[in-house]
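Colleagues,

For the teaching module next term, I've prepared a clean inverse folding example: a structure given as tokens, and then the sequence designed for it. I'd like students to try predicting residues themselves before seeing the answer, so please don't circulate the second half yet.
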């Protein structure tokens, strides 16, 4: 099966098609993670995006239900150098190709992925189309140019849960449980988590730290959250542009100072906007599990997992109220902040990783400590 990737600027890549025989549309971004492709497939933050994986071989260890970060894949399409037709891992239950085909997600492989990544780094993210339907190139380029830009899109309410639910699953079977006997202990805290595109490993980490987690839809009113009497509020990751999510910004303003708040990724950006700051779109975003971030409070460097196309403008924040806590060492973008007077902090990167290193797991403990202090 032949496939074509066409970008809005006219750049075209021809390769072999896998997965679904179909056509998909989205913003083309690249991820530099060495492993964890299934977690990337199922991260809701990738809604509206075609993902290029820089690791040259993908699919070689198959897929399994435990590695899902949501109920289904959210990537629009996949671009790789080599896509394995076999899986070699004791945990594998389904081929990666079969998994993506089930959800009608097309894959293009056997292209020069290095050339594509260099093109995106030089010229920035591009809207694109993957097609294995045999459409002519000029038509595909025109379709790429007609795709709505990510700027101005509120995708959080699109991917969010429609109903409130309680999460009760801790660490996965192949991971060590950090809190000994946590499964046998009653939850110490009740956390309400806003779902803007939340990953399962965030919920696992909160549960493993002794929290009972109630997940609510993105547009849930602050007053309705407070009636649940939480000890803390979590603001999740998610796709799209944070600026159109005005409902979320307003809810955060009404919750600040009422309960401890911890935000990750889109949640961090929404906190920045709620505090009066501004956000902007990065040239090609941060996507991968090897980004160095400096903790400005401890002076330590963490290797972190990233997945975002927007960032908070540090200079736009009211510094009398906000303290900057983390900085990206690649491009000096803001990666973390906390309020000087209120129990509120956030990070742009993903401390839950999955995939990625575990350097930043301590942030979940800091959230628990903040809730403990506020309960005294």
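(Answer key — instructors only)
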């Amino acid at each position: 099966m032949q496939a074509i990737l066409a970008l809005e600027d006219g750049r075209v890549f021809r390769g072999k098609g896998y997965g679904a025989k179909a056509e998909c549309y989205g913003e083309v971004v690249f991820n530099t993670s060495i492993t964890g492709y299934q977690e990337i497939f199922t991260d809701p933050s990738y809604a509206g995006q075609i993902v290029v994986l820089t690791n040259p071989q993908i699919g070689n260890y198959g897929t399994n239900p435990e590695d899902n970060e949501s109920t289904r894949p959210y990537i629009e399409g996949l671009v790789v150098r080599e896509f394995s037709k076999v899986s070699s891992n004791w945990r594998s239950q389904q081929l990666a190709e079969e998994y993506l085909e089930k959800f009608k997600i097309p894959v293009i492989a056997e292209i020069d992925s290095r050339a594509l990544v260099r093109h995106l780094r030089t010229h920035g993210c591009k809207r694109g189309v993957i097609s294995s339907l045999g459409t002519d190139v000029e038509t595909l380029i025109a379709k790429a140019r007609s795709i709505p830009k990510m700027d101005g899109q509120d995708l959080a309410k699109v991917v969010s849960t429609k109903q409130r639910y309680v999460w009760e699953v801790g660490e996965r079977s192949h991971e060590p449980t950090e809190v000994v006997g946590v499964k046998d202990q009653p939850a110490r805290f009740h956390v309400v988590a806003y779902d803007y595109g939340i990953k399962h490993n965030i919920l696992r980490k909160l549960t493993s730290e002794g929290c009972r987690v109630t997940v609510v839809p993105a547009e849930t009113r602050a007053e309705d959250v407070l009636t649940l009497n939480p000890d803390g509020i979590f603001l999740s990751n998610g796709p799209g542009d944070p600026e159109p999510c005005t409902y979320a910004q307003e809810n955060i303003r009404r919750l600040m100072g009422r309960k401890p708040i911890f935000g990750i990724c889109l949640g961090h950006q929404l906190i920045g906007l709620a505090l009066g700051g501004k956000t902007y779109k990065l040239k090609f975003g941060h996507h991968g599990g090897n980004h160095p971030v400096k903790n400005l409070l401890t002076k330590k460097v963490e290797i972190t997992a990233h997945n975002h196309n927007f960032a908070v403008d540090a200079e736009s924040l009211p510094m009398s109220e906000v303290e900057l806590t983390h900085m990206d060492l690649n491009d000096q973008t803001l990666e973390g902040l906390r309020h000087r007077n209120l129990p509120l902090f956030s990070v742009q990167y993903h401390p839950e990783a999955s995939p990625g290193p575990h350097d930043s797991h301590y942030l979940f403990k800091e959230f628990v400590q903040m809730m403990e202090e506020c309960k005294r």
